Amino acid sequence: MHPLFLVIASGFAILTVWGFISPRGQWRVLAGWSRRRPYADEPSAGLIALHRLVAGAGIAAMLLVGCSLYGGYLAAQPKPPPPPGAVERMWGTPAPQVIDRVFEALSTVPAGLVAQPVLSYQSMDGSSRTPGYLFTLDRYRVQDADKGIGYLGHAPDPGFTALDSADLVVQVRGDKDCIPQQVVVREDDDTVRIGVYYGQPNPSDGSNAVNLGDCSPKPSKSGSVSVLVPVDLDAPLGDRTVERFDNSKKIRAVPLIK
Question: Quick count: other Cβ atoms within 10 Å of Cβ 22?
């Protein structure tokens, strides 16, 4: 705000408040000195009341303008980001998207594809739709998904989702310039090992991608998308641990937030 405006506004405010509190004293100071008989020429009681009324209206106007300016000042201030919700506290920010695809898992690493970081997992029961919040998350969208571009699996039957038959979901930080193409799962009585592999999409015209495996194995947060992959196991997860397929490192289990 310009300093000259502040000076003028402050002077106007002082005169207005003074005129409301002591209109007769203000007249004596500002105008009485110019009269030969100041006390004899003082304004009548009616004029004094009118002067106070005008000053009161001026004070009200200043308050309205001041509140408006202060409100504009507050609105212009940068707002802190909203606190993370329950989903973000579980999975990180931004909230992950669900890959709504049904697939047959492989048992060996596919050639030409790139493993993407598997960050965490959560056990679930798709038949009872538990936990229910998973079914409300946004779906991961891929252009020309069913036109032979190599996208993972196939779309679920009408009226169903891939989560309906899943025993757990795994969180993957995938290269945003690639697409998930295969999932590897190996189960035994104690452990479930999972790997998710991405590649460049094949052109939808049926030709092959030139650099199928041209994907970052450790994409940055800005260069990746957080997704949840529903996995249908041979048996419910139970007490088994979940590990990364490539290095047998345990994957973080994500508990539900009450």
Answer: 15
CA atoms within 13 A on the CB side of 231: 32
Domain positions in the chain: 3-76, 86-253
List pLDDT tens digits, range 2-25: 667 666 777 777 778 777 788 777
Smallest Cα–Cα separation from 229: which of 103, 65, 125? 103
Helix (H) or strand (E) holding 64: helix 45-76
d(CA 55, CA 61): 10
Structure tokens at 163: 């989560």
pLDDT in tens, 90-116: 999 889 999 999 999 999 999 989 999
* Inter-CA distances, 162 with 19, 100, 116, 146, 228, Å: 76, 5, 20, 15, 11
β-bridge partners, 244: 194
Mention every residue, 6+ apart, whose C-beta is less than 8 A from residue 110. Answer: 181, 182, 184, 197
